[in-house]
């Protein structure tokens, strides 16, 4: 149980990552991914990478610079411009709906203007899901200068789009619906220099 704990990615740049195991019964037509990150990186870095054999950027949360997030579905992306962080924890949730192609992005419990992405697409179920690296091939092909360095916590993946109330609940660490990946019952494997530590503050 990772309650009140974090993954600390200690090196910069790094070849380390964390593999997440999720039991996906079928391809995703809707999903929400949420996580909390704390870093002083200004270079590009990957937060959450979900790759299939057919598509390395099936789902990707990527931060090319401090004032921008990129959200990929099926190799295409939309950009969300954000205020440059105050060197504090940032909580992000990104959700996507195949039927409308609507991509939602929430930062610290607040929604950004919705954008259109990959309407009618289906996300494959057989996936390599990694924290801290961006996959250029299934489970590998890393560029160390896209690696994450810092602290990651509160990682979730749902096979639905969360309601606004639940998006805010995720930011506030309140009770959440059952998830494919849930921080308090995460099945994971650390590869390389990543340490599990207690969170320094709430």
Automatic annotation (TrEMBL):
Tagged with keyword Cell cycle: no
Domain Pentraxin (PTX) per the UniProt entry, residue ranges: 3-202
SMART domains assigned: PTX
GO molecular function: complement component C1q complex binding; metal ion binding
Annotated coiled-coil segments of the chain: none
Main location per the UniProt record: secreted
Gene3D superfamilies tied to this protein: 2.60.120.200
Named cofactor requirement(s): Ca(2+)
Cofactor note: Binds 2 calcium ions per subunit.
Keywords: Acute phase, Calcium, Disulfide bond, Metal-binding, Secreted, Signal
PANTHER family cross-referenced by the UniProt entry: C-REACTIVE PROTEIN, C-REACTIVE PROTEIN-RELATED
Subunit structure: Homopentamer. Pentaxin (or pentraxin) have a discoid arrangement of 5 non-covalently bound subunits.
Family classification: Belongs to the pentraxin family.
Protein name: Pentraxin family member
Taxonomic lineage from the root: Eukaryota, Metazoa, Chordata, Craniata, Vertebrata
